[in-house]
Amino acid sequence: MKRFSSLWISLLLFVLPILVGLSLNQLTGSLLAQHLLHKKRSEIEAAMNDRQLALERSMGDQMAHFAFDCGERDMILLRDPKHYSRYIRLQGVKLASGKGCSSLGPDLPLFDADNLPDPGLDTTGLTATEQDFNTEQELVIFSKHQGHLAYWVLSNSWSHTILEKPCLDCFYLELIPLVPGLSRQELFPRGDKRIKEEADSLSLSFTPISSQLQQTLWAGRALQKYAQNKARRDTFWIGGALGLLLLVGYWLHRNYRRSLKGLIYRGLARQEFVPFYQAVVDSRTRAVVGFEALLRWERENAFTPPGAFIAYAEEQGLILPMTEQLLEKIIADLPHLAPQQWVSVNLVAAHLEHPHLRSQLQRHDWPSPTRLTFELTEREPILDIQAAISEITLLQEKGYHFKLDDFGTGYGGFAYLQRLGIRQFKIDKMFIDTIGTDDPKRNLLEAIIAFGLKSSMEMIAEGVETQEQVDYLAHRGVYLIQGYLFARPMPLRDLLPWLQAQTAAPHSAG
């Protein structure tokens, strides 16, 4: 069922951006049409500026070298390829005498030269070819010099090429002259005029800096349709890409949550870390004097072995919130235990190098100082020993007791007992296992016990599994026993019935 759900979630994440995009297609299509209209205006302005630069170069060079006699020199200038561009269709010269020539050879009656400004004035201006047979007029740039006239007929093809992209019949352009000699009512249309007449057409008016023409650009239904289709196509591509990113993100997050670190974070959020209590028994009376609270991870009605996550949690700094969660539950469990029984909680160095433990206990108004004790492992070194001394001293003043766990297996050992003011320690199972064997570490066990007795320290033997070990330890003055011989770690719901059974038969082993 979970796999089926994950597949459905994956499918939804993939198609969701596409569905959202399609639902907004009308809006995005309209916005895209507006964008394309403004983009087309920029293209036209850029082309007009490019045309103006090309004209200025050609006109300046030719006007400086024309002989104005339509002789060899003039014809070479008119037909020189460097003076042609996609903006100039043809060019020519009209002499003061009335004769003329063009790049095609003979003079061409393309416009009415008599309506131009006074022939005696040197000037540059704009006019248009004659309007014949309802065809498009072409703009003409002219320049007068000492009664002679040079002219350049501008090609319309560049404007049609621009207007045909990105789709046919998408744009219509009107040009209105802003110069003397041409009526402001005169239009120079480019494209299909029916676009302007459409009810829902868009328009944009502008006048390029380098131009003497006011221009109005129109866009109609063809552009709207193109924009809608493009928006739809883009929705599939972009939405598919976003959906793929969401899908990858979902599976990365899912794998992260299923990874150990992600599972631990989720376990903390779900309060999955619980205490298991292992009894500490006085071998002389078989009475339960206290418990060590061991961290267990209960998830999906099963328990994860501590060896599978404790070391990793310590490396990642997650042991602090896990221990905090554990201590909260221990404080809540204490009233269910006998008043004379204590519970010992394991700490790491970071608990004492910073005020984590003190702050938590203070929030609970310093709960049960005679029943709540703490075990500090020496398998990891205390880096800030002065901070640890200050924290332990403050907590001891509040009545809390500390034990040194895993004594003799790691860092500090005897120095910790002396500098931290700890009066109890636990003998590690590694040494207990040497009892009844020829293991050389048994000599260390003897030395540890001798040190504890001489120093009047309370000692607890961990990992005791046989009566032989109990007898051996009792013969040497170690009576507090923790191990499977008496009890395994168990949750409170199992511990309470076990304690009742122990009370009824105090001398029976678990």
Describe the structure.
The chain is α/β, with parallel strands linked by helices. Helix content is 44%, strand content 22%. It has an eight-stranded mixed β-barrel with strand order 11-12-14-15-16-17-18-19, surrounded by four helices. A six-stranded antiparallel beta sheet has the order 3-2-1-6-5-4, with helices on one face. The protein has a four-stranded antiparallel beta sheet with strand order 8-7-10-9. α2 packs antiparallel against α4 (157-163), α2 (25-65) crosses α6 and α6 crosses α7 (260-269). The two termini are 42 Å apart.
Radius of gyration: 48 Å
The proportion of residues in beta strands is 15-25%
Low-confidence stretches: none
- Average pLDDT metric: 86
Cα-to-Cα separation, first versus last residue = 42 Å
Largest sheet strand order = 11-12-14-15-16-17-18-19
Write the layout of secondary structure elements.
Blueprint lengths: L1 H22 L1 H41 L6 H8 L8 E7 L5 E3 L2 E2 L17 E5 L10 E7 L2 E7 L2 H7 L7 E7 L10 E4 L2 H4 L4 E5 L6 E7 L1 H38 L1 H10 L3 E10 L4 E13 L2 E3 L5 H6 L3 H15 L8 E6 L1 H5 L2 H8 L8 E6 L7 H13 L3 E7 L6 H6 L4 E4 L1 H4 L8 H14 L3 E4 L5 H9 L4 E3 L9 H13 L6
Parallel strand pairs: 12-14, 14-15, 15-16, 16-17, 17-18, 18-19
Antiparallel strand pairs: 1-2, 1-6, 2-3, 4-5, 5-6, 7-8, 7-10, 9-10, 11-12, 11-19, 12-13
Helix pairs in contact: 1-6, 2-4, 2-6, 6-7
